[in-house]
Write a structure and sequence with these properties.
33% strand; elongated; two-stranded antiparallel ribbon; SH3 type barrels; single chain; 1 helix; 2 domains; 100 residues; alpha+beta
Length: 100
């Protein structure tokens, strides 16, 4: 019985450590998103045009002809985080055009 209690204790400690790490990662991601550039843009049939390239996702279909807010890192312009104008997360999207 002691062995089972010991194993349960070790497993509980590992799960707690993983949950703590996930909370920390989410906090870091939240902070980094706050520091990203934010901009309101139009959604077209081809998606969102930014930095001279198109970004698209099926999650943007209901937003065609409307505006959304995007966040992006200035030093990594291959990915956009898209939010509704009310602040609800829609999708993380990458460039749909070939690189180069």
């Amino acid at each position: 019985m002691k062995l089972i209690e010991l194993l349960l204790s070790v497993m509980t400690d590992k799960v707690t450590a993983l949950e703590s790490q996930e909370d920390s990662n989410e906090g870091n991601l939240f902070c980094s998103k706050l520091m990203m550039k934010k901009e309101r843009v139009n959604v077209y049939t081809k998606g969102i045009k930014k930095f001279g390239h198109w970004f698209n996702s099926s999650k943007l279909l209901e937003y065609i002809g409307r505006q959304v807010d995007i966040r992006y890192q200035e030093d990594y312009i291959n990915k956009l985080y898209v939010y509704s104008t009310q602040g609800l997360f829609i999708s993380e999207i990458k460039r749909t055009e070939p690189y180069g």
